Amino acid sequence: MTLEQAAKQLAELGHPTRLGLYRELVKAGKSGLPVSDLQSRLAVPGSTLSHHINRLVQVGLVKQVREGRVLRCFAQYEQLNGLIGFLREECCSKECC
């Protein structure tokens, strides 16, 4: 992961609504959540939620899949693990821990 990619992902997660949304998706596990469930859990208007989801999709942290009439969102764990790994890369390299 590049510094620029990590910065973009962290910037998108730096918004309270997007961080809450992402946490709900991480808690949901591999089954993800329909957008309607996210809207209910977060009490966010649909257009606002769509905007926040799109921002997370753009940086690769969320994936959306249409299942008939349902739009389901999934946390992208590979991206999350990559971001965490990037942040931990230098840990203890200078005996800071």
Describe this structure in words.
By secondary structure, the protein is α+β, with helices and mostly antiparallel strands. The model has no long low-confidence stretch (mean pLDDT 93). The chain has a single domain (3-88), classed as Winged helix-like DNA-binding domain superfamily/Winged helix DNA-binding domain (Arc Repressor Mutant, subunit A), CATH 1.10.10.10. It is elongated and about 50 Å long. Strands 1-3-2 form a 3-stranded antiparallel sheet. α2 (16-28) packs across α4 (46-58). It contains 5 helices and 3 strands, in the order ααβααββα. β2 and β3 (70-75) form a beta hairpin. One of its GO terms (molecular function) is DNA-binding transcription factor activity. Keywords: DNA-binding, Transcription, Transcription regulation. Residues 1-95 form the HTH arsR-type domain. It holds the Pfam family HTH_20. This is Transcriptional regulator, ArsR family.
Structure summarized in a few sentences:
The chain is built from 5 helices and 3 strands, in the order H-H-E-H-H-E-E-H. The protein has 97 residues and is of the alpha+beta class.
